[in-house]
Amino acid sequence: MKKLLLLIVSAAILLSGCSAEKSDKSASSLSEFKPESKINNHVSVDDFGAVGDGTTDDYEAIQEALDYIYSNGGGTVYFTSGKTYLISKSLFIRDYTNIYAYGATIKAKGSIGLLVNQGDGEEPTGYSGHSHIMVEGGIWDCDAHSFEDGLGTNYGQNGISFTHCQDITIRDVTILNTAVYHAIELNACQNARIQDCNFLGFKLGTGNKEAIQLDVAQKNSGNKAWDGTLCNNVVITGCFTGPSERLPAHPVFVGSHATYEKNCYSDIIITNNIVNSDCGVYAYYWKDCIMTGNIFNGVGDPVHQEKSSNLVISNNIYNNTVYPQQ
Predict the structure, then answer these.
(1) Measured between alpha carbons, how far is 179 from 89 in angstroms, rounded to an integer?
(2) Residue 210 covered by a domain
(3) Would 151 be classed as within a structural domain?
(4) Which tens digit of pLDDT belongs to each residue from 230-251?
């Protein structure tokens, strides 16, 4: 049986796996960046014909708005508060584009990813893909509760997926009802910030599926350029994970379960989050990372560490957990 634990633990743990010098970095000094925002250009998706009634397929109108902003040097695409925009294909966002969707809902029609930064035929390497992107606000509904199974036409996708990029911010976003994979997939990303987001509901996956996956560009990772690029300098703060009205929570809040030639994900900061999952953080080949100020509720394994080094785990609260830290 799980023991009721309410602990505040302050610890710095050094484990083998990644060769690294001890880091003096702190949560306040890592990832101090802001994506470049060209706010002079802004459009509403409604101006391009989006209806937002929850039944009309608004994919083409929204994509046209995103294309317009990109072709004019960057800017912001607005969604109207109170409307529900149904899309039948993944939206493609490119350099220097911001999405402002407070109060709006973007809902998947079928088993599609909602937002990607890599288009057909593109194969960027390193961190050279579409970058300097901000997504703010909105309910992004993957609609997994309508799936009958995890096979064939009902096979799931990542909710929001960014690959081979840098300077990414996702803020005040709620991602609902993900199927099979992840609410957010960061694959080969550096300088990324996920702040004040909610990840609610998950269906039809294995026990190691994270709400937020930090991934490496390798075969079978969903990435077209397999150059071994990993994520680094990522901040995840102020987020909440748990069940939706119809589906249970993701098995894992944030983590990785693959690497390339034993290289490490580095400078990951996870602070002030509320976690209601079976596993909180799955640190696999991580180094120089900080996990502090989080609340783990009923989590079997709040922080799992494997082949990692220079992890600072401090001032977290553990409620009804099996292993306060491991």
Answers:
(1) 16
(2) yes
(3) yes
(4) 999 999 999 999 999 989 999 9
Residue 195 identity: Q
Distances (CA, A) of 159 to 114, 173, 200, 211: 5, 11, 12, 9
From the CB of residue 153, how many other CB atoms can be counted at a distance below 10 Å?
Answer: 9
pTM, to two decimals = 0.87
Residue 146 tokens read as 């309508």
Residue 283: pLDDT above 70?
yes
Q: Which residues, 6+ apart, have CB-to-CB distance to 78 below 8 Å?
A: 42, 43, 44, 45, 100, 101
Residue predicted with more confidence, 216 or 30: 216
Going 308 to 312 to 317 to 323, the CA torsion angle's sign is positive
Q: Is 34 inside any structural domain?
A: no
Could you give the CA distance from residue 184 to residue 101 in angstroms, rounded to a whole number?
A: 17
Q: Which domain holds residue 62?
A: 44-277
Q: What's the total number of domains in the chain?
A: 1
CA–CA distance, 109 with 87 (Å, rounded to integer) = 6
Q: How far is it, in rounded angstroms, from Cα 220 to Cα 246?
A: 30
Beta strands in 216-323 (DSSP E): 232-237, 240-242, 252-255, 265-271, 274-275, 279-284, 286-292, 295-297, 301-306, 309-319
pLDDT tens, residue by residue, 138-151:
999 998 866 655 54
Query: Does residue 304 fall inside a structural domain?
Result: no
Task: Quote the distance between the C-alpha of residue 230 and its chain's center.
Answer: 15
Least confident of 71-80, 152-161, 254-263, 287-296: 152-161
Q: How confident is the model at residue 27 (pLDDT cuts 50, 70, 90)?
A: very low
Q: Are 269 and 5 within 8 A, CB to CB?
A: no
- The CATH number assigned to the domain holding 115 equals 2.160.20.10
